[in-house]
Prior knowledge:
By secondary structure, the chain is α/β, with parallel strands linked by helices. The chain is built from 24 helices and 26 strands. Helix 5 (127-142) packs across helix 11 (293-303), helix 15 packs across helix 22 and helix 16 packs across helix 22 (608-618). The radius of gyration is 29 Å and the shape is elongated.
Amino acid sequence: MAQTLIPTAGPEKARRLYVYNGGLLTQTRVRRILSLSGYRVSLGLPGADDLVGIWGNSPTAHRGLSVAAKRNTPVLRIEDAFLRSLFPGRAGAPPLGLLMDSKGAHFDAARPSDLEDVLAKHPLDDTALLDRARGCIARIQEAHLSKYTAFEPDTPVPAPGYVLVIDQTRGDASVTASGADRNRFLEMLFVARDEHPGARIVIKTHPETEQGYRDGYFSADDAGDGVELLRDPVSPWALFEGAIAVYTVSSGLGFEAMLTGHKPRVFGQPFYAGWGLSVDEFPVQRRQRKLTRAQLFAGAMMLYPKWYDPFRDSLCEIETAIETLAAETRAWREDHKGWVASGMRMWKRKPMQKVFGRYKAMTFSDDPAAARASARPWMVWAGKAEVGHQAALRVEDGFLRSKGLGAELVPPLSLVTDDLGIYYDPSRPSRLEKLIQMRSTLRPDQARRAEALIRALTRDQISKYNLGGTLPELPEGPRVLVVGQVEDDASIRTGTGEIKTNRALLEAARTAHPNATLIYKPHPDVEAGLRAGAFDASELADVVADQSDITALLGAVDTLWTMTSLAGFEALLRGVSVVTVGVPFYAGWGLSTDHGDVPPRRRETVTLTGLVHAALIDYPRYFDPVTGLPCPVEVVAERLASGAVPHPGWSNRALSKLQGLLASRAHLWR
């Protein structure tokens, strides 16, 4: 994902923007984006070098237009960007970006706008720009994003073969600017039926109509006789897939339909009409240029808007905005029904609420029968799953976890959820395994994102726990790192064969490398005295790297031996040869030398970027400790690199010390 921060104007460059609309004054996010774009929202009367700001064609726009006319002041028209938020603005959701136009309104073809100038005059021939546009289109469709995203992608849509007619909200500015009214919508419906005799007609209502904020132009009275009114919040991308034709006045869904290959019949004059990608009932004669879908997207979604990054409080590229919305949308889709959770120790419940209880508070029950009887979806901590938990989704720590140990009660910044199994158990498929298979082929934009993530993790020496430490003096010559594990860990119980102890692993590595420098790194939980697995490794190892930084060690060795440790995955990121004697999730894909009994279902050859995309981008959920929001992986990587991660309170530290005294009873808190 692109992480470019857009240069913003400093206070000395800010231009005063006089507004006469309450929303432009009170909406914090809107004011912040305007500020970062070089405008200082002001009250009063504008001077010669100032601007008047109005919100589109809102009911209050006439105030600003009147002041601007009397004082001969330029007008800046402000609107939501085309990817906005989970919910409509009327529900209080802040926008992800803004459209600012100094010439006109993008939805009003009465005169050219800045957007129309971009589409008509910009070369739009830069290969890199168009490649990015194609990647963004694919990512938006893959994540089922739209202007508003509070819908579930698997909500059923009508059986394929229908004609899609798109409704809009009454009095919408783009409708009135097109000179349309209810009669125009009825005409559109008539034409759709006339051009497709016998076909089913599906009228899709607007999200604001579904949620009771504003009426649409169609109602239940228009349904019947082969016409269906679809009020359910469904994925537009699923809807387009089953449509044989699309009809719209000026809806943004018409633009999205174009991106899927449809050539919509347009009964208004929206920004996307007139470029050769639609059939226009009311052509805008000055629009004569022919554009590709990638060019239209690049102009409307990349060059025209101002996108906002809430994690870095900066303007950003569209790729960052897409991933911000995708992270929030994924969280809502998975969590809005609430969860009942089992196998969660008391100390875990608060951080679990922060991640999974954002939209509806979680409930906790260790009674499988009661959990199954709940109307909510059910999750269980993977290591606590047993007979009776088959129907529950498994939850575990993610691979970029924290700055500190879970055994010391440091809360995680990432968690994985698995509806098939769990990543460390090779006895059955896991969701991660399916994702790795799916990522055996990557789009160019996916490969670029994974490559950038690998560079960031290796550059900033980021690992699962990020404990730091020293690097011991190491002899010259071949060096083999052997990483110890917690011997009663679930990954050892489920993912190993004959070699299932740290001593046995070290012995196997010594046999295979009799002349190499053997470096043994104990697991941090074992070093801290919190888990099982300690032994005297000095008999077999040349160096015992106690309290050493795993990332520094990985930069100093040639080969790593492991049973199932995540350190093997981290070694692959750094170009270190990896030998596995168990079956970790990264074994069996052609990236490591595997001595374990790898399941035959792992047949694909996967690139490192494909593995990273599946394991670090697709699989986990991430939680930003600074803003408290669901976030993309890159944000957590930056927080870990900068140290912007809150430390546990005194109660957690005291409890972790008590655990150290009771290490043999770790099952009480794990």
